[in-house]
Structure formats: C-alpha cells, structure tokens
Specification:
single chain; alpha/beta; Rossmann fold; five-stranded mixed beta sheet; four-stranded parallel beta sheet; 13 strands; 34% helix; 19% strand; flat; binds iron/sulfur cluster
Length: 328
Amino acid sequence: MHEIYEREVLKKLRELNAKRVLIQTPEGLKREAQYLADFLEGEEIEAIISGDINYGACDPADREAKLLGCDVLIHLGHSYMQLNLEVPTIFIPAFAKVDVVKALDKNLNEIKKLGKKIALVTTAQHIMDLKKAVEFLEEKGFQVFIGEGDNRISFKGQVLGCNFTAAKVNEEVDGVLFLGAGYFHPIGVALATKKPTLAVNPYSGDALWMDKEVERIVRKRWGQIAKAYDAKKFGVIISIKKGQLRLREAKRIIALLKEHGREAKLIAMNYINPDALEGFDFDAYVVVACPRVPVDDVERWRKAVLTPREVELLLGLREDYEFDEILG
Ligand code: SF4
C-alpha cells in the first residue's frame, strides 16, 4: 500500500499544515502503519501510531488524536464514513490485489443459476474491481444492477457488515451476486433482499449459495431469542464508538421492553465483551452497536445476547428474521 499512498498522504498533510499525526490501523496493516510513520518522520512530521486495533471506519480515533495534540488522523484500511470528526481525517482504504474476473469465470455456471438480471455487491476491498466484474458479466449476457446504498457507505455497490442498502436495487432482479470473502456480508445480503444469493470468493475461487448458511445462522439466532424468552432484566448496550453510537435506537428498545413488562437498563461500553459484563445482574443483553458483535461472538456470551430486531421478534412485534443494520 505504501508505494501508492505515501506521496498522496504527504500532499494532503502539507495542505493541512500538519505537524503531528495519529495513525490508526487494523490488525493486518500494522507494518504499513510503521512504514508510514517512518516515512512521515523523514518529512519532519511527527507520527504517533495507535496501538489499539481498529475494526472499522465506524471507530475513528479522532478524539484520541485531539487529546494527543495531533492535527490530523490517518485512518488506514477503511473507506470514508460520514461522521462528525474532531480533527481532519484522511481515510486510506486497503484494496485487494486479486483477480476477481478469474473467480467469476470459474463460477460462471453457478452464477447463471441466479438468472439473467442480477444485483452485484462487494466489500470495500474489491470495490475498484467492480467495473471489471460488471463488464465481464455483461459480456456473458447478464444484466447487472449496482445499488446506490445510503449515506453510511462510500461507494456504489459496497456493503458493510452493518449496512446492506446497496444490495437493494431499483429493479426487480432474479438474484444477488456477492463478491468477497467471509459469510457475514452475503448472509446479511440474502436476508435483506430475500433473493437467492451466491457468494463468489475471489481469494479461494469458491462459490457458495447462501440459503443453507442463512438457515444455519437464523436457527442459531432463534436459539438466542428462545434463551431470552423468560428474561426479566435486560442490559441494553450502546457503544461509545462514534459510528456505532445509536442512543435513540437503544432508548426505543428500552421503551419496548418496558411496555412489555421487562426491566431494561442502558449500558455504555467502548469494547463490548461478555467478560467485562460479568458481575452485573442482568438476565439477557441487547447489543445496540456493531451488529456483528452479538452474532460473531455469540459462543463467548453466557447470557442470551440479542440485536434490536431480535428483541422485536421476542416481543412478537415482527415476523421476518433480518440482520440488524445501521442506516445512514
Ligand atoms: Fe464494520 Fe461493525 Fe463498524 Fe459496521 S459497525 S463498519 S460492521 S465494525
């Protein structure tokens, strides 16, 4: 990443007259952060590296940057997210260097099972290859639609683990093609669109239909809802991370729980984890923060842990299972 970005970053820092910067990085880009710090110090800009692991653009270290007297925050690895930031912030997304067309070509017969009219979505890592993917698919006779998404996302066709709005296109499509690694995003896409969804992984070259995955995860989630069935006291957890802070939604959930005869208290956390909650006297928790937290780490929770939409299911206020989303 450094060959491409270092000069561009320096140019922006000069424009901002930056003397001291904080560099924030996800796990996989720690060495790049170190390299960038070296490079900037060679250019007479003091660089501090944040040692806290970052998981998304929803968690910018702008407050920390301000506290440390930094003029600019450099946020590595994620694309821009519209947030009210306390210092100028340069987002440097990490784009994957992998041949997406090769993976599409290999799985063409599976993709054809989606139908002719398809919506195409991906994660930020592959967003620069979306055009190439569309050209390839159109050449093969597909009609491809890319959703705009809402204000939380940076690029057309981009999905986040907390936002699948770009998977919903203004056209009646036969199915959705997800390009990327991992299951969380395509499961969310399938649940949000209710369309047949095929995930093509450009790294492994594999393709996987999401119906079985959706079934598996929804069954697990109903297990959590059942576990919370008799719970009286709920801890409703909000995050203090800027892009995950959903106070109004948490208050809505508290009001709903109380209306239905349950007790509920608001808990604010930075790093949400079950160990830190040991000792509290709650029967179940609701995470109104990153929607991945209660799903990805469910095995670590002793008490039932639900999303806001799962609370609605618990209380009989909705019927369809959907992943929680943070909309922009
Ligand atoms: Fe990713 Fe969760 Fe942040 Fe959304 S809230 S961007 S899923 S870390």
